[in-house]
Amino acid sequence: MPNTWPVVDVHHHIGVSTTCTFIAEEVLIPWMDEGEIDIQIVLQVNQHACHRTPDWNPYLGNDYIAKIQRMFPDRVLGLARIDPWQQPPGRYTYPPSMRGKPFDRFKRNLALEECRRAVFELGLRGVKMHPKEHGYPINHHSVRAIFTELVKLQEEAKRTLVVLVHAAADSTYNTNEAMMDVCRDFPELVFLMAHCGFPWGGKTLASTVGPLDNVLFDLTTCPETATILEVYERYGPTRFVAGTDGPFGAVSIKNAIVAATFKTPEEQALVFGGNILRRLGLAATRKPDGRFVLSKPA
Q1: d(CA 15, CA 8)
Q2: Element (H, E) at 63
Q3: Residue 1: inside a domain, yes or no?
Q4: Number of folded domains in the chain?
Q5: Residue 3 forms part of a structural domain
Q6: What pLDDT, on the 0 to 100 scale, is given for residue 297?
Q7: Is the peptide bond between 199 and the residue preceding it cis, with omega within 30 degrees of 0?
Q8: Mean pLDDT to the nearest integer, 73-92
Q9: Any idea what the CATH number is for the domain that residue 129 is in?
Q10: Is residue 2 part of a domain?
């Protein structure tokens, strides 16, 4: 592929949990260099929706993601994890005599507070949402409140925020129709649809989410070529991005998925990095060794 755009891996987990020991301070840059990745988008391991980094595990939480972004500002973009359940109910549901009345016992909304902290205090570039792992439909009203807040924060920060959604069709919480519902209602945000609805997404992906140009299809661990081809044939190469799903997935798998559909070097360069940088309004410069770094660090 031509070296016209940086290689941007849009999907990599960092931190320590019961299934992952990726201590990014030590191993992220070697991982990137070995895989010829110029810029890495990082997010928390899946087992948690941890806002603040806890004392018992310094490798978890949004503060940890921000720490790694600060350590490598010209090569790393971080996404916060937000727990949509950490919000007060808007109205009473019980007892029947109170049903429908405004809830007045407490008002603090930790989910929305964390959105603001992530953007302005931590300097992160958006959020990662995992409906399957944390048990919510992506178009639930509590999640919509987060997206409404992100639109406001985006206007205040004057920079594009990205929403990366685990959108594999691997549970009732992940459907193309739910993604279509919410992405259509928030055209101001850039959504990355991780895994492209695999394994059942091919039935409706192109017809549901396809027409929404604020959605980029993240090919991370999506081997369903028929699904990708249908979207490509209708909407072209500028709607795709690619990640490794690291450290669980390999760079070679990502490269093979892209090569199966995008035949020209120019199209591959867009998928590997050009499309996401354009959407985020970011620029990169080439170093003397031929690699790219962000022109304006995050």
Answers
A1: 20
A2: helix 62-71
A3: no
A4: 1
A5: no
A6: 60
A7: yes
A8: 96
A9: 3.20.20.140
A10: no
Whether pTM > 0.90 for this model: the answer is yes
C-beta separation of 46 from 60 below 8 A: no
Token look-up 């993240």 returns 218
Angle (CA) 126-128-134 rounded to 5° is 145
| Mean pLDDT across 259-266 | 94
Q: What are phi and psi of 234, to 5 degrees?
A: -85, -35
Distance CA 108, CA 250 (A): 41
Cα–Cα dist 196/202, whole Å? 8
Q: Residue holding tokens 């350590």?
A: 71
The count of other CB atoms within 10 Å of the CB of residue 31 is 19
Q: What is the mean pLDDT of residues 70-98?
A: 96
Segments forming the whole domain that contains residue 33: 8-294
Let me know the angle formed at the C-alpha of 96 by 92 and 101, rounded to the nearest 5 degrees: 35
Higher per-residue confidence, 265 vs 171 = 265
Residue indicated by tokens 């007045």? 104
Which pLDDT belongs to residue 224? Answer: 87
Residue 60 pLDDT exceeds 70: yes
Q: What is the pLDDT of residue 39?
A: 97
Please say whether the beta carbons of 188 and 152 come within 8 A. Answer: no
In this structure, is residue 222 part of a structural domain?
A: yes
Statement: residue 298 has pLDDT above 70 = no
User: Quick check: 71 and 55 in contact, CB under 8 A?
Assistant: no
Identify the pLDDT of residue 55: 94
DSSP 100: T
Q: How many CB atoms lie within 10 A of CB 210?
A: 18
Query: What pLDDT was estimated at residue 1?
Result: 44
Hey, is 215 helix, strand or coil? strand
